[in-house]
Write a structure and sequence with these properties.
- It contains 21 helices and four strands.
- It has two domains: about 290 residues, no CATH class; about 180 residues, no CATH class.
- The protein is mainly alpha-helical.
- Helices cover about 65% and strands about 5% of the residues.
- The chain is globular.
- Strands 1-4-3-2 form a four-stranded mixed sheet.
């Protein structure tokens, strides 16, 4: 039975490699492929780097005040910043409208239509990384917030909402639900320019409805998931734009990632949101790998339906719905799998430290220490798309509808994608992942010193968290090293 099941798994991989299905075109531009490399050397070196960083922190950091993040300093405050924010608002609204209009009336090819690159690459990827360098801009330039503010001038209840948002009860669950829907669309929606335009229209309607029910302020803090996601990303930023008491704007500077030490998660649902930032990126890299597909076709499916061994290639058609349930269900369960591992590490740390703090408090206090990992996971998985497809935005602005225009004389620029050297890509990914985990180890150790107040207890409490981060590092590198098939 086992050889037959293996043949079924190979047949499934063959069909997916032959391109008979395009269900899971990641990010709607295919997949970033990283060549497999010898893994043990990178894995062991990365784990050793984390262990060394933990040892250094344990020896030299004995008080939480040793690294309290420091106060941010105002470095620029000019009236011009108000005009720049206003310009950013107008530009964001224009880009949203352009993405919808070009999707409806433009070329159906994803590579020829502006809206796909503008949304998936420039906004979802590039702006997220921009927010990790220069935070705070999205909360003022958010096009859906600007749209809601304009609508509130006509529909007065939209400003305050028809109901009071019960933040302690609802928390960030609306944002989590929308985030999960977004990732499903990204991975399994087989998005085209037209469907993307409809998704953007639907999302705009959802935001208007959310504001009508609960008010603009509450909705864009707890419900609009891009606001939550980019606010989390902005906690890594060395520069932040903020509003003063007089309605003007200023730019403040601080050490990178220091904002993570100035606050903590304000609701248990935000912990789930952060864990989904981790798990969705890891799952994105995993769900199209050969081992993941073989797990279903060669192991799970024969166990669930022994008759499948007699169906051969026909099983790929007859059990397609099962495979979709396997993929979709795994995505939805992924943050809760991570939550179980996270809570186990916290529980073990609590026992080692002899702490009386509640598990909910510990989960919320240490949640931000995971954000550097989420950032580097996101960056290492997707940054090559900026090089291969992102540069084409210059040409697409001259020909936004894909109708052969050349509005700005740049339609022929970057006709061919920039193909990065795969060895350089891999080593950049390894170094970036390790650095992100080292920062997380450092932040978690500072938080432990503050929370437990005792150097020995803090160090003991972080041993399980260190093992968890080692597991995250190893898993992240392993996923990047796997051969990839297009999805079934």
């Amino acid at each position: 039975m086992r050889p037959t099941a293996l043949r079924l798994g190979r047949s499934a991989a063959f069909i997916s490699a032959a391109g008979l299905s395009s269900q899971a075109q990641a990010h709607s531009f295919g997949i970033s492929y990283t060549l497999p490399v010898p893994f043990w050397l990178y894995g062991s070196a990365s784990v050793a780097a984390l262990a060394l960083s933990f040892l250094i922190a344990a020896i030299f950091m004995r008080r939480g005040a040793d690294a309290n993040g420091g106060a941010s300093k105002k470095i620029v405050e000019r009236p011009l910043l108000s005009y720049l924010v206003l310009f950013s608002k107008a530009l964001a609204l224009l880009f949203l409208a352009l993405a919808i209009v070009t999707g409806i009336w433009g070329h159906p090819n994803a590579y020829a239509n502006l809206n796909m690159t503008l949304f998936w690459i420039i906004f979802v990827l590039a702006f997220a990384y921009f927010s990790a360098l220069f935070g705070g801009l999205y909360q003022y330039a958010n096009p859906w917030q600007s749209l809601s503010q304009l609508a509130a001038k006509v529909v007065k209840p939209m400003s305050q909402g028809l109901f009071r948002y019960q933040s302690q009860d609802y928390g960030y669950w609306p944002a989590i639900g929308l985030y999960m829907a977004f990732i499903w669309v990204e991975l399994f929606g087989n998005t085209k320019p037209l469907s993307l335009a409809y998704y953007l229209l639907a999302y705009s309607g959802i935001n208007l409805l959310g504001c009508l029910l609960w008010g603009i302020k509450s909705w864009f803090r707890y419900g609009e998931f891009f606001s939550v996601f980019l606010r989390m990303m902005a906690l890594a930023a060395p520069f932040t734009i903020q509003q003063n008491d007089k309605g003007g704007y200023y730019i403040s500077g601080q050490w990178p990632f220091s904002a993570l030490l100035k606050e903590s998660a304000d609701h248990r649902s935000l912990v789930i949101f952060i864990l989904f930032m981790l798990s969705s990126t890891a799952y994105d890299g995993l769900h199209e790998t050969v081992p993941w597909q073989r797990l279903f076709w060669s192991s799970l499916l024969p166990a669930l339906d022994p008759e499948v061994i007699n169906q051969g290639l026909r099983a790929i058609v007859t059990h397609r719905s099962w495979y979709q349930a396997y993929q979709w269900g795994s995505l939805l369960l992924s943050p809760f799998v991570y939550l179980a591992a996270y809570l186990l590490a916290l529980w073990l740390g609590k026992k080692l430290a002899g702490s009386q703090h509640s598990m909910q408090l510990l989960a919320m206090r240490f949640a931000y220490s995971l954000l550097p990992i989420a950032l580097v996971y996101h960056l290492t998985h997707y940054y090559t798309l900026l090089m291969t497809q992102g540069v084409k935005i210059i040409a697409l602005f001259s020909n936004p509808f894909g109708l052969g225009w050349n509005l700005f004389g740049t339609a022929d620029w970057f006709k061919y994608p920039i193909i990065p050297d795969i060895n350089i890509v891999w080593h950049v990914q390894v170094v970036t992942i390790v650095i992100g985990h080292i920062i997380s180890v450092y932040i978690a150790h500072v938080e432990a010193l503050r929370l437990f107040g005792d150097h020995k207890k803090a160090t003991l409490s972080q041993l399980p968290m260190l093992l968890l981060m080692m597991a995250f590092t190893t898993a992240g590198l392993w996923i990047l090293a796997q051969p990839i098939q297009s999805g079934l």
